[in-house]
Specification:
The protein has three domains: 1-82 and 133-148, Roll (Chitinase A, domain 3), CATH 3.10.50; 86-127, Thrombin, subunit H; 149-219, 2-Layer Sandwich (Alpha-Beta Plaits). By secondary structure, the chain is an alpha+beta fold. It is globular and about 75 Å long. The relative contact order is 0.15. It is built from four helices and twelve strands.
Length: 237
Amino acid sequence: MALQEGDFIRLRYTGRAGENIFDTTDEESAKEEGIYNPRAEYGPVTVRLGSHHVIIGLEDELIGKEVGAEGQVDIPPEKAFGPHEEDGMKSVPTSQFREKPKRGTRIEVEGREGVVIDVIGKRAVVDFNHPLAGQTLTYSYSILEKVEDPIEQIKGLIKLFSGRTDIGISIADGVAELTLPPAITYDRRWMVWRGTLVREIFENYPDVNDVVMKETISRPATPEAAPEIEETEESEE
């Protein structure tokens, strides 16, 4: 049966800009390309079609395909990261930088991330466009399976948004309960994306009325006391 919006699928893909891989679910390909992130979870991802979990051009390609389909698609800028716009180029005083800026430096100004493309006198020219803006991208993909189980779907969303695979999930009586590992509040990516996760749970599962996040911290084990050593008097010679 052809896939449609609302379906969850497990997907393997690799995205290229020209000959260079910029995104992939394959660990070996990431290592070969020099973009490997040791903190990332590689392997197939679970996405919901119609929710823009992948770029629009790839999502359009997947809708209507069958499970098991493999292919390659060229995606124009307007369905990828948009055109490269002149309005995205700004001149910024070098006094706003902690260190002297140079070409290629990635910076954040007023909450926007950009890259320095030139330094002229006391001003730096910063490009705030997405690094892949204006480029036609090529994606190869494999649709591995359709994901029907709501718990597996939510696990997939958690991995997609936060990269975590250590969160337990149960759904009962209108409550989706997430069992969180200790110290997860120190995970910045989780804290940024958990609101999006909750919103998508409510949007996709109308029977869920509450999302409960439970973090349990157990008392540390008491160290065992060292055995006492009886002192004995040394015999006199």
